[in-house]
Amino acid sequence: MKKKLGSEEIFKEVIDSEEELRSMYGYPSELVNNKSITLIDHHCRDYISKSPLLFIATSDSSGNCDVSPRGDAPGFVYVLDDKHLVIPERPGNRRFDSLRNILLNSKVGLIFIIPGLEETLRINGQARIIKDQEIMVHMEAQGKLPKLGIAVEVEECYMHCAKAFKRSHLWDDTYWPLKEELPKPSVIIADHAKKLGLSQDDVSKSLKDSYENRLY
């Protein structure tokens, strides 16, 4: 039985079967159906070595989802062999959303990004949290070793097409908003955490300290 959603009375025309979905959009091409591989080949290794940013998708045992960025110098992800890679766990906000989810559900999805390149690399697999020191030494940064890593056993790798990046013009700075028009994170956080009574300046100072002193 499908879980009843609170928005059911808002949306009147909901797609609830693959048949209806296929009737509108059809099926993938033979190229799309055959581009997925089950290992980290030399092309994937090269892509990972040039990527300074990835997003990791996780969910808990109830299906509650989370997507979190991980970033560092290009090549920060350590590839052990054709089936295994490790993402260093650098200091963060200590919510541990991704890590807590992995403890409950090992399935993860990764998207690797290279600045200026519109195609992305997607990897799906099984994850576990590790602290093997002989592996951590390969991910040293700024003279510090990560305490933990997210080890992923790869089940699927494939290149994802560039349509989302082309539509968004992400890498074309002529489409970027003016700096003064950007949302102000310190204002947003102060408002969302208003029960703490923190001002925008309080949050700005906290963020500055975190960025300057607790990146590694």
How would you describe the overall organization of this protein?
It is a single chain. The chain is α+β, with helices and mostly antiparallel strands and 216 residues long. It is built from eight helices and seven strands. Strands 2-1-5-6-7-4-3 form a seven-stranded antiparallel beta sheet, covered by helices on one side. A hairpin with a 6-residue loop joins strand 5 and strand 6. Helix 7 crosses helix 8. The longest helix has 14 residues.
- Helicity, as a percent range: 25-40%
Q: What is the H/E string?
A: HHHEEEEHEEHEHHH
Mean pLDDT: 95
Termini distance?
Answer: 46 Å
The radius of gyration computed from the alpha-carbon positions, rounded to a whole number of angstroms, is 20 Å
What's the structural blueprint in terms of helices and strands?
Blueprint: H1 18-25, H2 30-34, H3 42-50, E1 53-59, E2 65-71, E3 78-79, E4 84-89, H4 97-104, E5 107-113, E6 120-130, H5 133-136, E7 148-160, H6 163-168, H7 185-192, H8 200-213
Antiparallel strand pairs: 1-2, 1-5, 3-4, 4-7, 5-6, 6-7
